[in-house]
Automatic annotation (TrEMBL):
<dbReference type="InterPro" id="IPR036380">
    <property type="entry name" value="Isochorismatase-like_sf"/>
</dbReference>
<dbReference type="Pfam" id="PF00857">
    <property type="entry name" value="Isochorismatase"/>
</dbReference>
<feature type="domain" description="Isochorismatase-like">
    <location>
        <begin position="7"/>
        <end position="180"/>
    </location>
</feature>
<protein>
    <submittedName>
        <fullName>Cysteine hydrolase</fullName>
    </submittedName>
</protein>
<dbReference type="InterPro" id="IPR050272">
    <property type="entry name" value="Isochorismatase-like_hydrls"/>
</dbReference>
<dbReference type="InterPro" id="IPR000868">
    <property type="entry name" value="Isochorismatase-like_dom"/>
</dbReference>
<keyword id="KW-0378">Hydrolase</keyword>
<dbReference type="GO" id="GO:0016787">
    <property type="term" value="F:hydrolase activity"/>
</dbReference>
Amino acid sequence: MELKTNAALIIIDQQKGILHPRLGRRNNPQAEERMLALLGHWRRSGRPIVHVQHLSRSEDSVFWPQQSGVEFQERFEPLPGEQLIQKQVPDAFCSTALETCLRGAGIEQLIIVGVATHNSVESTARTAGNLGFDTWVVEDACFTFDKADFFGNARSAEEVHGMSLGNLQGEYATVVSTAQILN
């Protein structure tokens, strides 16, 4: 595993709304600290950073553009020169310029962090892998929430997170830890 000098850090949906209590219990309480450690490392090394912002089409979403919650958390606010991609569905490649921007910059390796593991992170990582990018998902810099499965069985955020990472590992992406990247 080698981190390329132009590997892009893709930070998904680090907006104020993701902290809303109505989303329920989550896993990885240190995920944001790890995202910030990676973001700092990327900024210091001059590698490309892409901030993904969700602008929901659904009025009951925490990311509905007509309400507070859609804006970035201050600690994840993009700096000048960092790429901003706005999406309306979980997949950051769908109906956005993300692939064009990455290919135009000659970027082949993507390091994905953010939320929610089972939703925007997984769908973006699947597409990235399908498009041929060398895709890494940082398991401890992502989180998700408790969720019922299709049959109505309650699943913990840890189970949902683990299953999502299991779906990705080896087929669409390589699952890594923050420490593996920073060391």
